[in-house]
Amino acid sequence: MHNSRMRNTDVSPLGSVDKALQLIMLLRSEQALSVKDAAASLDVAPSTAHRLLSALAHRGFAAQDSQRRYRPGPTLGEVMVEPLSLSRLREVSREPLNLLHEAVGETVQLMILRGGNIQFVDGLEGRLTLRVGVRIGDLMPAFCSAGGKAILAELNPADLEQLYRHGLPPWPTSRFRTVADLKRHLAEARRAGFGTNFEETERGVVGLGVAVHSSAGAPVAAVTVALPSARFGKEQLEEFLPMLRACREEIEDRLHPARPAD
């Protein structure tokens, strides 16, 4: 005899908090969640799961991807790279960064998103006398940085608005004054698959960046090449991008190696 159990169609206020916390735990484990998946995990009606996920997305804890699944949002992004996993990120990135540095001869850097900023977490300076210095530990508006743009371009528009809900903070060399301007630029970066910085972080510096992804496909870091604008031209763009992408792929392979077949 089939024993069915009535599914919860609603939950109490305290129960809602508990369910929301369960969803956050699922999101932080980097599972891609559909509304149906969330409803099944919580044993609630899809309408309840949708309401909870929408509330988390409103506060930046969740974000929808192009398949309308929910992934960790920018608020969780601030704590996604914890001390142990940040150490792991540096560890797996060190050799690919070294190889990229040897190939391009310019400054290469690894960064993560911290709210509306990027934070430089590792890097190697270029070999020439005129070079861009590394900025390990420094924070900078993500919308000025090549790597920051590469990450921002992959966020849901609602999450981008949440990050900059008070507008774009002033930065002396920024190209953008409004979130609408930034969105238009990020649409181009999304299509191109990389971010650029043409003297936007500071005068005389040009950068190219690509996002590094988690196993669930969420952007968790970025790798950049930065060089003096006097040495940058179309040939550098065409030469450096394949090397950046190869570095990114190597880091991703090391972050989440393929599991052996059963």
From TrEMBL:
Residues of the IclR-ED domain: 75-257
PANTHER family: HELIX-TURN-HELIX TRANSCRIPTIONAL REGULATOR, ICLR FAMILY, HTH-TYPE TRANSCRIPTIONAL REGULATOR RV1719
Protein's UniProt name: IclR family transcriptional regulator
Keywords for this protein: DNA-binding, Transcription, Transcription regulation
Residue span(s) of domain HTH iclR-type: 14-74
Highest taxon above the source species: Bacteria
Record organism: Georgenia daeguensis
Stored InterPro entries: GAF-like_dom_sf (IPR029016), HTH_MetabolicPath_Reg (IPR050707), Tscrpt_reg_IclR_C (IPR014757), Tscrpt_reg_IclR_N (IPR005471), WH-like_DNA-bd_sf (IPR036388), WH_DNA-bd_sf (IPR036390)
Pfam families assigned: HTH_IclR, IclR_C
